[in-house]
Amino acid sequence: MGMQMDMSMDMGSDTNDTDTPMSMKGSGTSWLPEAAPMYMAMQNSGDWMLMEHGGAFIRYTHQGGLRGDQKFDAPNWFMAMAERDIGFGGHLRFSGMFSLDPLTESGYGYPLLFQTGETWHGIPLIDRQHPHDLFAELSAYYSQNIFSNARVFGYIGYPGEPALGPPAFMHRPSAMYLPDAPIAHHWQDATHITFGVATLGVVYDRLKIEGSVFNGTEPDENRYDFDTPHFNSYSGRVSFNPSENIALQVSNGFIKDPESDGIDVHRTSASILTSTTIGEDHEWNSSLVWGQNYDTEEGVQNSVLLESAFTFSDYAVSTRIEIVQKPQRELGIFISPTEKETVGEYILGVSRKLFSTEGLDVMLGAQGAVYSMPQTLVRYYGSNPFSFEVYLGIHPSEMAMHMQGM
Fold it and tell me: Which residues, including other chains, have CB under 8 Å from residue 103's CB and lie 6 or more apart?
């Protein structure tokens, strides 16, 4: 019997014996399902394991309706990691995440109906997605085994991500073929770029409990600098992976003045992520996320997101369904500023891999979106807005291992 291995790394050295399996590592210290696909390149350099992954979409987006806009742009991100085992049961990891959004998106970001959060020239961004910072994560992580199946860990980032919410959308396999940020981003995973965070946690088998202190204010309008850290916020998260195909988390945090408007937020989140392989080349990755913001101005605001990507052969079909409660004030409407309006976004997309080269996949894709809204908002957005985009997507090829018999 012969064996053929097609992988982007040398299997002669495993630097992951004392820590979470590589496929489970999401953004910050969050967990994915162990069965999640790994779209990355990996190499060994002495005792270190080096990893690179990321993605970019070169696209045209057209957001419809009365508040719509259009743009040629290229949202993108890149991440590099280096990790190794140390001493008796220790594990060290350094991570860096970067984005050229400040160049490709400009300070005004890209058009996205019903999106809110952050500012440009002191004016709140409405129906726009803000660009991410050049430096999205510079972090260090250390874990130490204390007995069988149990370890403690610490994580610091400047910037980094606290223990709050699910893995950030660009790290979820279910969102891999969706260029846009969720419109519930600031209700679920917007703390993924935090200038100042420290996390301590404990892991026992498939259970993890962790807590963070961090800077609650979101990044300022200068996307190239390092904001002053203020450890004025806190969060806690419990994660549990009952099987290799499922990742669960619940979390809660107090966020001090996230939008620099004097309003503090209590955020609660729960999520279920699943990854399943069907046959040789069929994969199904899904995320169900609930996020709630509570503040003294508008009270409770809920959001729910269902996201799914089904890949087969060289094709992928993706969908995202979101429903979010947003105060009129968030949408720039002041009939009753604190009145909450429930809006929905429903996306369907398809993409095809054109070719692979040098460990990268190049895809051609398209998606369309329709929306739901109360009658109050129809005069501002139109009765049936429709949005679409076409893109060339670039990301690392999936790591794979194939066994062939005689």
Answer: none
